[in-house]
Write a structure and sequence with these properties.
The chain has helices at about 35-40, 60-65, 80-90, 140-145, 150-160, 180-185, 240-245; strands at about 10-15, 20-25, 50-55, 70-75, 100, 115-120, 165-175, 190-200, 210-215, 225, 230. It is an alpha/beta fold and about 250 residues long. The chain has a single domain, classed as Rossmann fold. The strands form two sheets. Strands 3, 4, 5, 6, 7, 8, 9, 10 and 11 form a nine-stranded mixed β-sheet that branches. The protein starts with 10 loop residues before the first strand and ends in a 7-residue tail after the last helix. One of its GO terms (biological process) is methylation.
Length: about 250
């Protein structure tokens, strides 16, 4: 394994189904299940160009890298998170496939050709900013979770300019923003095609939403996929989630 220097508070976690190792820091940023599910939700093109917006510590792009040979560009505004992602790229020997760009996503076209991207993955800030936003979060979490430095409109506008015709945008978001998301996608000529609601367990309300849209696609043919449940009644992962985390052939202990 490459020797990568860890900074104070950092640890290395592994997603066993992919063998990808990620540098994490719970005080700054740690990926969670939304990143894992997003990396597995869309059909990943085998060639072309993939962009991971709002990439945080790089988890989504790094997990997706195991499913394709296509180059992946990760875009993250925060220097601290971009630095963690860059070291994770080195840790996994993915320098020839994955590139980290520390920049505002609104500058994406400085880094990729206009209408040249096949797939954009995005785990955006979920919460609208209000006076009651939980300001006790660290600055890193605040920017990752609240629409301070970017929002749905900006993400969809950038996607429209960067994606090829029939290129796709895949996002993970919150169900309470569902109508907002659909309206915004359609406003920017991104036709929603696949939607999946994710539930903590049976009998609970959905707490995540995966959505894939196609640039210049027809508005017909929207598929609502079967629900995805994260936990069984006893608190263990369901079989579907266990496989995503540990791989097809893994045995439960």
């Amino acid at each position: 394994m490459t020797n990568v220097t860890l900074k104070a508070g950092e640890r290395i976690d592994q997603l066993f189904s992919t063998d990808v190792k990620i540098i994490q820091n719970k005080d700054v940023f740690s990926y969670s299940i939304d990143s894992v599910l997003l990396s597995r939700f869309p059909k990943i093109p085998s060639r072309g160009l993939i962009v991971d917006l709002c990439s945080g510590n790089g988890a989504v792009g790094l997990f997706a890298s195991t499913r394709t040979k296509a180059p992946i560009i990760e875009v993250e505004l925060q220097e601290r998170l971009a630095d963690m992602a860059q070291r994770s790229i080195q840790l996994n020997h993915l320098e020839n496939q994955v590139q980290m760009v520390q920049d505002d996503l609104k500058n994406l076209l400085n880094h990729v050709p206009r209408s040249g991207v096949d797939l954009i993955l995005c785990n955006p800030p979920y919460f609208k900013v209000s006076e009651t936003s939980k300001k006790n979060l660290s600055e890193h979490y605040l920017l990752a979770r609240h629409e301070i430095t970017t929002n749905l409109d900006e993400i969809c506008e950038v996607a429209r300019h960067a994606l090829k015709s029939n290129g796709r945008l895949a996002m993970v978001h919150r169900p309470d923003r569902f109508l907002d998301i659909i309206d915004t996608l359609r406003q920017y000529n991104l036709a929603p095609k696949r939607i999946q609601f994710v539930y903590p367990k049976m009998g609970k309300d959905a707490n995540m939403l995966l959505i894939e849209a196609i640039k210049d696609g027809s508005t017909d043919g929207l598929k609502i996929l079967p629900p995805l449940f994260v936990h069984k009644e006893n608190g263990e992962y369901t079989d579907a989630i266990f496989e995503i985390y540990f791989g097809k052939n893994a045995k439960r202990h």
